Amino acid sequence: xxxxxxxxxxxxxxxxxxxxxxxxxxxxxxxxxxxxxxxxxxxxxxxxxxxxxxxxxxxxxxxxxxxxxxxxxxxxxxxxxxxxxxxxxxxxxxxxxxxxxxxxxxxxxxxxxxxxxxxxxxxxxxxxxxxxxxxxxxxxxxxxxxxxxxxxxxxxxxxxxxxxxxxxxxxxxxxxxxxxxxxxxxxxxxxxxxxxxxxxxxxxxxxxxxxxxxxxxxxxxxxxxxxxxxxxxxxxxxxxxxxxxxxxxxxxxxxxxxxxxxxxxxxxxxxxxxxxxxxxxxxxxxxxxxxxxxxxxxxxxxxxxxxxxxxxxxxxxxxxxxxxxxxxxxxxxxxxxxxxxxxxxxxxxxxxxxxxxxxxxxxxxxxxxxxxxxxxxxxxxxxxxxxxxxxxxxxxxxxxxxxxxxxxxxxxxxxxxxxxxxxxxxxxxx
Length: 430
Description:
Cytochrome Bc1 Complex, Chain A, domain 1, six-stranded mixed β-sheet, five-stranded mixed β-sheet
């Protein structure tokens, strides 16, 4: 029997041998790659169809995101309402996601209903119609949403900081405008859809209680023919966009003269997601501002009381990236908050991180990874990020090794390379 008078032994997260569960890969008849993380202990299933159709590939601002949002809003045979009713009849949920590189459709359903739902997804991916009526509703709703958001300092700050880092003509620096929505046309949406939502660039990620014949089912609906614009191919030359960062690095914008607080963004460029410094920089960023016990939180929230929360994050893309500090604070303490951010950078450059603090960060990060591997839906997300970036499990294990072994001296050297005040763009929006 368990001795209830004795507390259980505590094992630190770094002591665990972290392993990413295996993934099954199969190829449909037309070449589509599919990836499966099975979990027979639950009744639900998640399927995601991913296309290289992010805003990197658009010819006009907002085109990729608008196609992704409208692709399920009507086909040549069914209206948006009818499609929604078909999906909801089976208790399923269909969502759309779009980023710089990729766009996707994600289906959540009970495993026993997947056979009835796959024809609906097939129809969406091959017969989307982009009705003018749906585009008009979408444009009106988005412009109203944007009108509200433009009154928020944090929204405006997020738009501008990316523009300063990458240039407003670069896919990473573009931002939403009223004019962009006004210029959307049905023919352009349909042309983008036909070119990029094709079997050539499709990959399917499956997680959950997949039926034993899931491969045959997917092959019947998505692998038996060459759907989409057959003239498109994965061999298309990738477009190049020059980075055009702003020359000035300090900006102050008045957005709401009567507001009581403002938004702060302090950010610098970082090479890209493939740079060898990424794993160790993730550790340094966590110390700096990447979790609730970070240096920024301890100083600026807990000690100074300037803000409810302040965080730093690494945004890593294929061609470039950034290290960004984000917070909102009262108008009277905005400048002091900026000063304290630079003060914490200076501390990391001049003083090595103590072993107790570094141990806490190691355990926090490994614990977060363990949490991200709890369940097939989370595991498939880890695998998807690796696969779409052209990486494998070896990269995952190198990252785990770095978290466990990176030294305070190595972190201090990184701080002296990447946390230099003159390299950062500084923005306050009030």
